[in-house]
Structure formats: structure tokens, C-alpha cells
Amino acid sequence: MLDLRRLQALVAVARTGSVSAAADELHYGQPTISHHLRRLEAETRTVLLQRVGRGVRLTAEGMALAHRAEEILALSRRAEEELELTAGLRAGRVRLAAFPSAAATLVPPALAALRESAPGVAIELVEAEPPDAIESLRAGRVDLAITFTYDDTEADLLSADTVLTDHLYLVEPAAERARTAGRALRAHRHTAWVAGCERCRAQLVELCAASGYEPEISFATDDYLAVQALVAQGALVSILPGLALAVHQHPGVRVTRLPATRQVQVVTYGAPPRPRTVNAVADAIVVAARDVSLPR
């Protein structure tokens, strides 16, 4: 039977690309990681790694084993959590990752609801955009993540439930006259734009392309408050999701709903069933999403 610590070392090397980085991630010494990898190769009678410069690269066999090892480790963590809950060894701790506007709009009411429905459940919140949140799920650093996606694709072993369809909005200076979404986008062919994160920027570019032009992106920031402040000064426009505007809408901007959305989801990693504490938090987030007031 393969040792879980050795599988954990292999997965860490696959993720980080080096023995030293894997040692840092797992808080082991490099000799310990090297020992686990040598023993794993001996036990499997397979070459799992090749040296490349100062780092290492997994062989095809190593990559295949690392992929399965992620599943095995996720199931092991799940089994431990379920046993602890059944035995009453802890009241329940859920590590939650959420992107900023979800952390501001969905998490607070979910926390309030949990204090009433599941007072023994404690939440540890980490702010993270979807790519980092998904990576944290895979690595076992969080139990649940609130993410968003602009399509319906799901990665292997990710379980995602959509809690909110979040519309996108054109954000203009308040002095701009009201127009339909299509006319408003076309009117800014020669206006400078403020763009957000890479995924949000891609959606901006696609919407402008559908209106027949490539946007001139002059500013880039992930701070939704900064985006609105820049637009309010009068010479810039942007696109923001409804959750960001639900947190705060600057009095100096006007918003127009666009024919584009993103799906806000609660995501877990690994095969079901989920621990009861994770289900309790996920359910509270679903309820909170129903009550969010988005711009019209």
C-alpha cells in the first residue's frame, strides 16, 4: 500500500516544480522530501521524476500517479473530517475562500445565519480570486470556495453549485445620458477604459468586439472602488459585475445592465458526500445569494 506522505510529496513537487519548493510548502526538510520520493519510486518500481536544470520534472508515469494521488489525498482528508465530526472531536471548522465582492455581500449574511442555525460551525475566511481559490481547494488549504465563471466548464473532481447569476454592467460617468446597452457600448468606441482582473478583462474585450471595436484600456485595477472613482472623474468607462456594485455604487457613476453574465458558484473538491459542516456553510451562502440586491 502506498504511503500517503509519499504521495503528498509527489503532488507537491508536481505543483511547485522543485523539491525545495515542495519542502517549503509541506514544511519538511528537503532530505525528507527526497527520501519520500526515492521510497515511492522503489515501491512502485517506476521512475517518477527526471532532473531538469535545477528543478525536476515528472515523467508521464509520475504525472499519472500525481493525478490519482490528488484524488486519494482528497478522499483521505474527507474521511478524517467525517470521522472527527462523527466522533464529536471538533465542533466544526470550515476554511472558506471567496473573491472580494462575494466576501463583502454573501459571507456576512451567511455568517449571521450560521450563528442561529449552526452555532458550532466556525469559518476561517481567505480572500482569493477564482484561480487561486481553486488551487487552494486542490491543495487542501480550504474546504469550500465561492468562485465565478463566465462559462459552464468544470475541472475534474470539482463539485460546483451555482448560487447566483451575476449580470455585468457598463459603468459610465453620471453625466452620460441614458442609452440602451448596445448603443452605450458603441458610444464608447473612442473612450478610454478601466479594466479589472484578467478574466474580467477578457469579457470586456469580447463585449466591445461584439460592438465592432477593440477597447483602449488605459488603466488596470482589481479594486472596484478605484474603478468607480476613476470613472466618476469623467473621462473613463468600465464594466463591473453586479456584486461589486451591490457592495458600493459611487454617486458619480451611472450603470447600464449588459447582455452578459457570470455564474457565482460554491465549489468543493473531491467526491461526495461533503462534510456536514461544509454543507451547512454552502447552504447559508445559497440563502444569502437569494437576498442580494443587485442593480436593475
UniProtKB/TrEMBL annotation:
Q: Which GO terms describe its cellular component?
A: protein-DNA complex
Q: Show where the HTH lysR-type domain sits.
A: 2-59
Q: Indicate yes or no for the key word Transcription.
A: yes
Q: Name one GO molecular function term.
A: DNA-binding transcription factor activity
Q: Give the domain of life.
A: Bacteria
Print the keywords alphabetically: DNA-binding, Transcription, Transcription regulation
Which Gene3D superfamilies does this one have? Answer: Periplasmic binding protein-like II, Winged helix-like DNA-binding domain superfamily/Winged helix DNA-binding domain
Q: Which family does it belong to?
A: Belongs to the LysR transcriptional regulatory family.
PANTHER family noted in UniProt: LYSR SUBSTRATE-BINDING, TRANSCRIPTIONAL DUAL REGULATOR HCAR-RELATED
Q: What is the designated name of this protein?
A: LysR family transcriptional regulator
Upper taxonomic lineage = Bacteria, Bacillati, Actinomycetota, Actinomycetes, Micrococcales
